[in-house]
Amino acid sequence: MIKIVILGAGNIAQHLYKVFQTTETLHVVQVYNRSAEALSYFKNTATTTNLKNLAEADIYIIAVADDAITSIANKLPFTNRLVVHTSGNVSMHELHKKNRRGVFYPLQTFTKDVTVNFSQIPICLETGEKSDFKILKTIADAIGSTSYKISSEQRRALHVSAVFVNNFSNHLYRIAHEICETNNVPFEILSPLIQETAKKITTLTPYMAQTGPAKRGDQQTIENHLEKLDKDIHKEIYTLLTQSIAKTYGREKL
Amino acid sequence: MIKIVILGAGNIAQHLYKVFQTTETLHVVQVYNRSAEALSYFKNTATTTNLKNLAEADIYIIAVADDAITSIANKLPFTNRLVVHTSGNVSMHELHKKNRRGVFYPLQTFTKDVTVNFSQIPICLETGEKSDFKILKTIADAIGSTSYKISSEQRRALHVSAVFVNNFSNHLYRIAHEICETNNVPFEILSPLIQETAKKITTLTPYMAQTGPAKRGDQQTIENHLEKLDKDIHKEIYTLLTQSIAKTYGREKL
Ligand SMILES: NC(=O)c1ccc[n+]([C@@H]2O[C@H](COP(=O)([O-])OP(=O)(O)OC[C@H]3O[C@@H](n4cnc5c(N)ncnc54)[C@H](OP(=O)(O)O)[C@@H]3O)[C@@H](O)[C@H]2O)c1
Ligand SMILES: NC(=O)c1ccc[n+]([C@@H]2O[C@H](COP(=O)([O-])OP(=O)(O)OC[C@H]3O[C@@H](n4cnc5c(N)ncnc54)[C@H](OP(=O)(O)O)[C@@H]3O)[C@@H](O)[C@H]2O)c1
Known about the structure:
Chain A contains nine helices and eight strands. By secondary structure, the first copy, chain A, is of the alpha/beta class. Chain A is elongated and about 70 Å long. In chain A, 42% of the residues lie in helices and 15% in strands. Chain A has helices at 11-21, 69-75, 130-142, 152-182, 191-200, 206-209, 213-216, 219-228, 232-248; strands spanning 2-7, 26-32, 47-48, 59-62, 82-85, 100-106, 123-127, 147-149. In chain A, strands 3-2-1-4-5-6-7-8 form an eight-stranded mixed beta sheet, sandwiched between helices. Chain A has two domains: 2-150, NAD(P)-binding Rossmann-like Domain (Rossmann fold), CATH 3.40.50; 155-248, ProC-like, C-terminal domain (N-(1-d-carboxylethyl)-l-norvaline Dehydrogenase, domain 2), CATH 1.10.1040.20. The complex binds NADP nicotinamide-adenine-dinucleotide phosphate (2 copies). Chains A, B: Residues 121-245 form the DUF2520 domain. Chains A, B: Residues 3-84 form the Pyrroline-5-carboxylate reductase catalytic N-terminal domain. Chains A, B: This is DUF2520 domain-containing protein.
């Protein structure tokens, strides 16, 4: 049995709480949040809004907004216990060194109230002390997640990469949605292509999976497309990504 | 029974041939290709490399490279028959008007030898004569595809949109792959996030699904990310897409 205190009551806190409840080995003994409101979610579990009242536990998981992590870690009223955060974007060393430190970062985009399947979620683990790694690994295993040993520097790289594949891809979907609306075409028609594009990289590298006019060096099609775009920002994005693809495939002149 | 002649022996020709074979109502009577080599794929079916020898059929499907469509349509040795192409990028009017014209455009990315499930593929249909629409619709129905009536102008918009969601998204995956390699992180770790990002737009609009520092206006994270990127072209793409997202959510100042 691993005794866990969760600090924070948002998205990640709720998803972790829920999945920990499904295991026999992970026991959430308490949830802390600065405000009482969001704590109503955590039924049947002790809660507190006062850091001084934190319960004894094997691990403290800080799942609050990135810029609040350090200040909460500083205020913890104990030393030499295992304290981890869940952020992709914050170094482990921003946790106060009076405690044993670590990171438990689930690399996925979570939406409140949308159930997630933790067996599909990779978790990036890091600890200051080697002996603490086992606890994090046991927690990841208990919820069925695949885990990876990832340093703070590597995690930072992953976080930037995640912006490209998640935030930026989604924005490209948004642009396609706008173009469809302007032309009175239902956006759903693109959904199978979007799913297939994502699926392809599970069997081919993105380098191998690339297709299209930029890769082929098909200048005529590129010009047709630019002509069809109304918004300047869409033209700019089209041009820059086309240049970048052309460069990747050795077509410097496009 | 609908009698079909396929012109072309590439990717699309092979996939259409294969799926037509699975139906009881669609009969491929002949396949034409300019060169004999690729015709070996079409076993048990008459083939020819000479347009003069084309068989009689209800519909002629031209599935050749975009820039060869017009010249093949011009050379057809008959008139007033139904002739369609399969391109997202070519107007129906580039087919010679001596025949009845149409378009049968499967909106998906096809890879040779990778089986595709046509029930998941939307098909964009267009015909010059209203009465021909029914034949195209019957073919789409027979292979289990959802079909849409789409004009040449709408198809052009869809083709540009497809570049954004397919070619450009894949290039963002490629950039993430490069960042991962530079930092010694396995790229597979991003796969669940990529799949989830694509899946989200089946239940939320891309506008609603957007997350991340650009949307939040989190300048500090944006600066951290730019610092972490080595390549100038990656920085440029990061900056432009960040600006575009910021603008979408009314944060003009980022
Ligand atoms: N959402 C994701 O997809 C995702 C994925 C992986 C990792 N993460 C990481 O998980 C952590 C939590 O993210 P989240 O999505 O769960 O955020 P969230 O849903 O916005 O919840 C934020 C939590 O932080 C608390 N908080 C905010 N500012 C605070 C402050 N100044 N002092 C004390 N508490 C404060 C909030 O308390 P109140 O209820 O009082 O406002 C709330 O409990 C972050 O480090 C994030 O980077 C998120
Ligand atoms: N691939 C996709 O994902 C996809 C998706 C939707 C629509 N389409 C459309 O489907 C059509 C065919 O594309 P594909 O992917 O099947 O192409 P492909 O695999 O490259 O095959 C091209 C075919 O066109 C023939 N061809 C090329 N240049 C020619 C010329 N000058 N004269 C006569 N024949 C010529 C080739 O003959 P040889 O064997 O002699 O070279 C071959 O049969 C295109 O209009 C394309 O836009 C493709």
